[in-house]
Design a protein that fits this description.
alpha/beta; Aspartate Aminotransferase, domain 1; globular
């Protein structure tokens, strides 16, 4: 019945579980465990739990399950597993599917914590990792070899908004028998078509656009039912990074307005990017929705949008960038993104601070670079705030 529903309908109704009270709002089941009618019933559930039967909140919960079903339907995936944070989702998707001796190929442009998992955690346990320029399909072709177990990349990189051709990399990976894992947080579930484009596994930090109001940490792994239930679930339920039912409840209400929020943010982001392009104190503007972005055509084909973030470089380096940020009146200074409130971030000294300088240089993370997450404020007010702060800088 739900297969023909449009996005906004799924975001309101998919996966609803009502109790005997017929509540309109999704119920929060704040419980660690579940009562069984008999010892025999408990034994049977531990042998094989039914589709709507639960054992322990670390394994699953009715509220969390509503969220998993709703976001899986949005993503076009068969199933999903909700996690305690976005990094728990990245870690769970990678570590659960890899063993010592396996080979992973990853894009080099990644969030710092993702790099830590690949460079420190996986290699510590004998996984071989090869890094490539994510936008260069020739590098993917050379690096992915028969026996490569997994490939990993951010579909739009943080913070320089470089895109990876999902269909192109997927063809290369699948020819070698590799599983494709995509971190899709910048693309958002609204603009994502990653599963349709061939991705096997899609991960999100639901802390960002899904929650949308800066309230709670969360993450999710979307994929085939076999991968989620036979690979991810055993690892996650035994290592403990399950989403809280309260977080799942907040995320369910975040999903109801997700499409409206992301489209409004993206519309404002394009206006802001165009306004900043001609500003004399801006060295460059990076926004895939601009025709000047080298991957504009790919962004339109892959997402149909430039997304909700604009990155730009302030002339004058770190000092000018800091003066600019301190002069903002509407936008907040933080390291989050996807919030209803606009957020300015200085990646070189915060989110990507741990990277060696040569790596920052290679990724284009300059001292003057600002990542701007566009919120729900009026676009004209944001443009006035940004240009006023630039004048002050």
């Amino acid at each position: 019945m739900t297969r023909n529903w449009k996005t906004r309908t799924k975001l309101v109704h998919q996966g609803v579980r009502r109790s005997q009270y017929g509540e309109m709002a999704e119920a929060i089941f704040l419980t660690q465990g579940f009562d069984y009618p008999s010892a025999e019933a408990a034994e049977a559930r531990f042998v094989k739990a039914g589709e709507d039967e639960f054992i322990y909140a670390r394994y699953g919960n009715p509220t969390t399950r509503m969220f998993e079903e709703r976001i899986a339907a949005l993503e076009g995936a068969e199933d999903a597993f909700a996690t305690a944070s976005g990094m728990a989702a990245v870690n769970g998707a990678l570590v659960s599917g890899l063993r010592a001796g396996d080979h992973v190929v990853s894009a080099r442009a990644l969030f710092g914590s993702c790099l830590y998992i690949l460079e420190e955690v996986l290699t510590r346990f004998g996984v071989k990792v090869t890094f490539v320029d994510g936008a260069d399909l020739d590098q993917w072709k050379k690096a992915v070899v028969p026996g490569t177990r997994m490939v990993f990349f951010e579909s739009m990189s943080n913070p320089t908004l470089e895109l990876v051709d999902i269909e192109g990399v997927t063809r290369i990976a699948h020819a070698a028998g590799a599983v494709v894992v995509v971190d899709n947080v910048f693309a958002t579930p609204v603009f994502s078509r990653a599963v349709e484009q061939g991705a096997d596994v899609v991960v999100y930090s639901t802390t960002k656009h899904v929650d949308g109001h800066g309230r709670a940490l969360g993450g999710v792994i979307c994929g085939t039912q076999e991968f989620i239930r036979k690979t991810v679930e055993p690892y996650m339920k035994h290592t403990g990074a399950a989403m809280s039912p309260l977080t799942a409840w907040m995320h369910l209400h975040g999903l109801a307005t997700l499409d409206l929020r992301c489209r409004a943010m993206a519309e404002s982001a394009l206006k802001i990017a165009r306004a900043l392009e001609s500003h004399p104190k801006i060295a460059k503007v990076i926004y895939p929705g601009l025709e000047s972005h080298p991957q504009h055509a790919l962004a339109m084909a892959q997402m149909g949008s430039g997304g909700t973030l604009v990155t730009f470089e302030v002339k004058g380096g770190k000092e000018a960038a800091f003066r600019f940020m301190d002069a903002l009146e509407i936008a907040c200074i933080s390291n989050n993104l996807g919030d209803a409130k606009s957020i300015a971030t200085h990646p070189a000294t915060t989110t990507h601070q741990r990277l060696p300088q040569e790596q920052k240089d290679a990724l284009g993370i300059t001292p003057g670079l600002i990542r701007f997450s566009v919120g729900l404020e009026d676009a004209a007010d944001l443009i006035a705030d940004l240009t006023g702060a630039l004048d002050a800088a």
